[in-house]
Amino acid sequence: MTRENALELIDKHVSKNNLKKHMYATEAVMEKIAERLGEDSELWGITGLLHDLDYDETVDDFPKHGFRTAEMLTDEDVPEAAVHAIKAHPGHISRDNKLDKALYAVDPITGLIVAATLMHPSKKLKEVDVDFLKRRFKDKRFAAGADRDQIKSCEELGIPLNEFMSLALQAMQSIDKDLGL
Predict the structure, then answer these.
(1) How far is residue 101's CA from residue 89's CA, in Å, rounded to a whole number?
(2) Fewer beta carbons under 10 A from the terminal one: N or C of the chain?
(3) pTM surpassing 0.85?
(4) How far apart are CA 121 and CA 113, in angstroms?
(5) What is the largest CA-CA distance in the chain?
(6) Model pLDDT for residues 57-112, shown as the tens digit of each residue
(7) pLDDT digits (tens, 9 = 90+) for 110-148
(8) Is the dihedral of CA 102, 56, 70, 67 positive or negative?
(9) How far apart are the first and last CA of the chain?
(10) How buried is residue 75: exposed, middle or buried, by Cβ count under 10 Å (0-12/13-18/19+)?
(11) What is the 3-state secondary structure (H, E, C) of the chain?
(12) 96 phi and psi angles, rounded to 5 deg
């Protein structure tokens, strides 16, 4: 599966621009985490890019989220490791390896970073720093959908929370124009 093939699938199955941006952000952060851990950044990036492919269909049927993406990818050249991580990221099946655990932790941090950026006085991703992000993280009412325990699971990868936040922020800042932030 090439990135171009993945983008074609996204254009076919994902209607909301904000969801596409979330998927691009997840791709960038997954690649950065893969580099930090010495893993396959291409595989991790494609996994992040495709992880919510079914969201338009499953938004009101959460138990199918991830499983429907797996079905959509049946005839595509996507490694089984990526498909497993996609099925595991909503918490439906066990997270068995670093790829699974990374996607689980990365998914909500992207939303927290976007929300923090939108509340930053400049509303510019490049102006957000880790200290600002940490203050938003501590306020449980802020971006309440960004599960703090899920984000903190980054420590299962051997990456402390502060470093994880920094890596995620750097990755998203590197594609700020694609994200419109």
Answers:
(1) 8
(2) N
(3) yes
(4) 14
(5) 46
(6) 999 999 999 999 999 999 999 999 999 999 999 999 999 999 999 999 999 999 99
(7) 999 999 999 999 999 999 999 999 999 999 899 999 999
(8) positive
(9) 28
(10) exposed
(11) CCHHHHHHHHHHHCCCHHHHHHHHHHHHHHHHHHHHHCCCHHHHHHHHHHCCCCHHHHCCCHHHCCHHHHHHCCCCCCCHHHHHHHHHCCCCCCCCCHHHHHHHHHHHHHHHHHHHHHHCCCCCHHHCCHHHHHHHHHCCCCCCCCCHHHHHHHHHHCCCHHHHHHHHHHHHHCCHHHHCC
(12) -100, -15
User: Do 122 and 98 form a contact (C-beta atoms < 8 A)?
Assistant: no
Q: How many CB atoms neighbour CB 147 within 10 A?
A: 18
How is residue 58 written in tokens? 């499953």
Q: Are 110 and 25 in contact (CB under 8 A)?
A: yes
Domains of the chain as residue ranges with CATH: 3-179 (1.10.3210)
